[in-house]
Amino acid sequence: xxxxxxxxxxxxxxLPPSLPFRFFIAAAVFHIFVWxxxxxxxxxxxxxxxGPGLPLGAIHLLTLGVFVMTAIxxxxxxxxxxxxxxxxxxxxxxxxxxxxxxxILILIHGFTSGDHHVQVGGAFLTIAALVVYIVVVGDIxxxxxxxxxxxxxxxxxLLSLIALFVLGFLLIVDFEHGILPEHSAIGMAHLILAVxxxxxxxxxxFSHILVPMFALSPAPPEKPxxxxxxxxxxxxxxxxxxxxxxxxxxxxxxxxLGLVAAGMHIWTMNWSLKNGMRKKLGLSFxxxxxxxxxxxxxxxxxxLAVIDTAGDNVVTLFGFLALFGWLLTxxxxxxxxxxxxxxxxxxxxxxxxxxxxxxxxxxxxxxxHAVCHGIAVLFISLGIVxxxxxxxxxxxxxxxxxxxxFLWFTLAIVKSYRTYHNIPEAPKAAPSETTTA
Amino acid sequence: MQQxxxxxxxxxxxxxVATLALLEKMESTISKQGKGNCPTEINDEMxxxxxDMTAIMTAEITGHFAFEEEYLFPRFAAAADNAIxxxxxxxxxxxxxxxxxxxxMAKKAKTDGFDQQTWEIFYDLGLEIVERExxxxxxxxxxxxxxxxxxxxxxxxxELTMAYAEKKSSI
Lengths: 437, 171
Fold this sequence. Notes:
The structure holds two protein chains of two kinds.
Chain A: H1 10-13, H2 18-40, H3 42-45, H4 54-83, H5 90-113, H6 116-142, H7 148-177, H8 183-215, H9 222-245, H10 248-275, H11 282-307, H12 314-345, E1 352-353, H13 357-360, H14 363-386, H15 389-422, E2 435-436
Parallel strand pairs in A: 1-2
Chain B: H1 7-33, H2 44-79, H3 83-112, H4 116-151, H5 157-169
Helix pairs in contact in B: 1-2, 1-4, 2-3, 2-4, 2-5, 3-4
């Protein structure tokens, strides 16, 4: 059986397209600024482990501007369609947007400028938006009894989100007032909760819906899927406890469990790809698979960081690979399937032929993105390892070019959608008289 | 592998599997040839693809589509949601003339071969139908078929299985 009767009544549960799309377009725009700010802060980035400045701004442009922005848009749309539980409060989704966008702009400005009051103001708005998001998504999850795998991951993701914004706020207060005993340990716990807790759980959970859907495969076997989930929760708890207590043995155990969980997750996803009816999944799944490889590489680098044998910048490399190597690669791979798919689900008018997916946007922009993104990850990793600012700057320039390619693709889809809806509906057009948008 | 509870739903799923295999084969064969490179002769690989395409596409747009439109869409609309059958019917209406034109061209090409002009038309139509059919099947497999398993009264299973067999045998 497929993972949920995704389309049954889906039309009536599709949100107004402007709602999820505003989050996806904003993420594509923030994506460019991530690389720009990383370029500007390249000198400090190679050994960055925390503190206000351009690298912190770049990281939060990525985590809040790209990752969480995408997660909010995808959760609002995907969960309601996949679970069959309709939104109770559409206004709350809009409210989350209007709190979140200014909130993160102010917060990131605070991080780059070092202005404490701006940071606090931005944090309040951002946390308010995330609370609205948690309530909306929590309500959908509470009313759903299908898709247990995706739901379980999402619940843990939401709990991690609460923990991470509480720690994040404490870190901001600590910048000014020095209240925390171990700022760097709490900063690392905040990063772990963000990367492996919130985003990691959501990407693992949503993959159980999206990968079978795109590969046209049955849902992967539940046993290894649930085992992977349980082990990953154990790994997450150990990682946070180990980091806060500075116990290397606990951190190491967390990484071993993380590797096992990641391996099992990748195995279940590959099971779907192998048993899927659609074998040619294109460039997007090259990115998705590259993301999976980078997840394993990230954890191995994490192990080196814990046993402390790989030079000074290994912690920075671990953070960079987790954020840019694994999550950003995976997310842009999935998004390039989700955005046109969602647009075309909303292009359904009598007598007006919907454009093909390939007509909606050129694949050239995605190829440019993929190549430039790969170069950026490679160069910046080398820059961190070799302490070479020039490598980081070169990688960031490549990242800027790639992210412009990705925005070009996203805007082309939006343009195609608008063009289609500008064509008047033809009530009784024969198939031969249909028009392509 | 039996994915669904109802026999005719599994048959529809099996049709999708066969159609997708054909579409991937077609995509590979014509992409490998290239749009500007008209085949000078119909080699074994091309002939096999043309034969499969004629058989499977004809079955798809006559038996499969007709069965869904006549028996399943009305039941789905009554039990759940009219928007989905309308959307799927709209896609049938787009795919049907494309598939008809493509199969006519394939039958002619098996005896006369392609010239540059007909090959370019065949190439474009082929890639268009691959995209449209894959997306259409994706929608049916994601929601329509699983929903049928829940909507259709098991007492109707034999009748619908029979009706589907008749539609297929009338091709």
